[in-house]
Amino acid sequence: MNSFKHILSLKKFIGFIIFFVCTSNIYAQEQIADFYKRVDSVIALNIKDLTSLDSVFLTTKKDTIKMSYLVHKSAKTDYLEGECYALNALGTSFRNISHYDEAISMHERALRISREIENLEMEVLSLNMLGVVYRRMDAIRSALDYHKDALDLAEAEASPSLEIERSIAVSQNSMGNIYLALKQYDLALEQFHKSLKIETRLNNQLGLAINNHNIGYAKEKKGQLNEALEHYQLSLRYNNEIDSDIGRVICYNSIGKIYILQDDYQTALPIINQALEKAIEVNDQYYIATSYLNLSLIQLRKNQYDVSKENLNKALSIAKNYNLKSSEIEAYNYLSELHEKTGDVSTALSYYKDYIKLEETLTSERNLQYVNDLIIKYESEKKNNQIKELASENEIVKLKLAQNKKTLLLSLLGGFLIVIILFVLHRQRQLRNEKRIVTLEQEMLRNQMNPHFIFNSLNSIKLYIINNEKENAVYYLNKFSKLIRKILVASTEKEISLEGELETMALYMNIENIRFSNGINYHVNIDPNVNTSTVKVPSLILQPFLENAIWHGLSTKSDNKEITIDIKKANHSHITISITDNGIGRKASQKIKNEKKLKRQSVGIEITKARLENFSKNFNDDYALDIIDLFEAGTPTGTKVVLSIPIKQSSLKIA
């Protein structure tokens, strides 16, 4: 009897299942038939505006089979508006399951059609959708280009439609997301609030949900966790009202992350599990990876290393397969921390290097785009505003000019007089500078034509004559006359070739060496890379340094006296002239000088510095002068003067 009842119940249950399946099939067939009728009606009416199409297909735009049918039917009947609408809907569906290549293909086809039919609403929508896909892929450069184009087109419309206003809000929201990627959180908040204002006016709950979530994210990054949580919860409320599963996934992850940051893992865990369940249900790989990352972070903080590692590897695998760079970076960071906690330092370091490498690559790409595109756009906006302000000011000026022409004429006259006065003052300054240069050259000549030097040189030559050393007398008299002639010629020239300067210095050293019985060994070493005939230097610039080397360094030394000049090309813009003596050093020389009763003030070096400073004004770079004391085992072994002279001519002409 019981078995009979059981069989009877089973038959009823099977009958109920058959009835349910049949009813469902009938209902599904009716829905499909209804959809086909709607497609035929839209094609017959040739509806072109996006708002009307959205109102017809709003409930079915997430159904890829029906949207594929709409694409096929529209293309067959040459109904391009319907084809464009359906392609964008398909692109959005592919994006939400992280099939980004297919999504880009759909949106690009929609963009081409929208431009072909010159439908601004659909063109702006297609550009924005492409921008969203590339932003999800962390391709900031491409995302910015598409959002910028969309925003420019939308804002250029004099009388924007409802859809254009929505697109402006989307573009502003997307620009805010790019600022988030660049970690410019205040600028991001500014864009989100602009977008939120439009969405509030349009009462677009999806837009309100998205912007509130983005504001929460920016607040989270700024460390304002309580405010972030409020915006996330508000976003969740809007997503529940519009029954958006993907919106719930996003909000669950974000709310759970706040609790993780607040160390409230007990509250966070069920929320993140709920996010993961929903993400798997909607098959959005981006948020599946995000959910695994958040879940692994909770487990990592609770020292549940094995399960944390398992979930991190799942997230990393998804990130690599779908090119989700942000998720990949986060996975590397958490894996590094996990292995560090478990004592596997080498693996932790390897993951940390991967994290840093990818983070730097992504950051540099974003910053480059930020500089090249984003700043340019908003600077352009500022300039446009400034132009408008200047135009308004110009109108005010015109009115003032019309009211008081006399004041304008007096102002112009006053301005003209000021220009003349400034010119006269500038000219006087130039003349004073030229006078200073002439005075400097005169002081230089007087310094080279030192009476003591001339008198001592002539005395030395006279001594040769008295000793009947005619050949030496004639030889040195010839050298002396050449030197004097060169000094006089140099006094008329501001600069000469380095080759000519070295010849003059050789004569000078020959004359000075008479008094040292030719005991000074004088050498000049020239780097093969230096062409002394083309390098210009101030005339007689080396003489003060040679004079100091002789009389302060070598004069009190008994033997083995040497002076060496080394000339090298330091770089493309300077040559270096080093004058080295093996004298007693500056400290010992100063002590001897202090003990002398008659002290002569030497101004040669100061004049030389002033001349070098004036010479360098015509070049891109300045001169440099260093005096180095040489030591060996703590004992002074001489002095080295290093003079760096510019050789690369400035492109600017000095008046």
Describe this structure in words.
The chain is built from 24 helices and 7 strands. The protein is an alpha+beta fold and 655 residues long. Among the domains are: 1-32; 469-646, Histidine kinase-like ATPase, C-terminal domain (Heat Shock Protein 90). Strands 2-4-5-7-6 form a 5-stranded mixed β-sheet, covered by helices on one side. A two-stranded antiparallel sheet has the order 1-3. A hairpin with a 2-residue loop joins strand 4 (561-571) and strand 5 (574-581). Helix 4 (80-96) packs parallel to helix 6 and helix 16 packs across helix 17 (345-403). The longest helix is centred in the middle third of the chain and has 59 residues, at 345-403. Mean pLDDT is 80; it is low at 597-601 and 650-655.
Provide the fold topology:
Elements: H1 2-45, H2 50-57, H3 64-76, H4 80-96, H5 100-116, H6 120-136, H7 140-156, H8 162-181, H9 185-202, H10 205-221, H11 225-241, H12 245-261, H13 265-282, H14 285-301, H15 305-321, H16 325-341, H17 345-403, H18 405-448, H19 451-466, H20 470-490, E1 495-497, H21 498-513, E2 520-526, E3 536-538, H22 543-554, E4 561-571, E5 574-581, H23 586-595, H24 604-616, E6 624-632, E7 635-646
Q: Under the CATH scheme, which architecture of the domain at 469-646 would be assigned? A: 2-Layer Sandwich
- Overall average residue pLDDT: 80
- Give the helix tally: 24
> In percent, how much strand structure appears in the residues?
5-15%
User: What overall geometry do the principal axes of the alpha carbons give?
Assistant: elongated
CATH class category of the domain at 469-646: Alpha Beta
Output the CATH topology of the domain at 469-646.
Answer: Heat Shock Protein 90
Largest beta sheet: what is the strand line-up? 2-4-5-7-6
Q: State the distance separating the first and last CA atoms.
A: 122 Å
State the total count of DSSP E strands. Answer: 7
Structural class: alpha+beta
Instruction: Say which CATH homologous superfamily of the domain at 469-646 is assigned.
Output: Histidine kinase-like ATPase, C-terminal domain
Largest sheet composition: 5 strands, mixed
Helix fraction bin: over 70%
Gyration radius (Cα, Å) is 43 Å
Spans where pLDDT lies below 50 across 5 or more residues: 597-601, 650-655
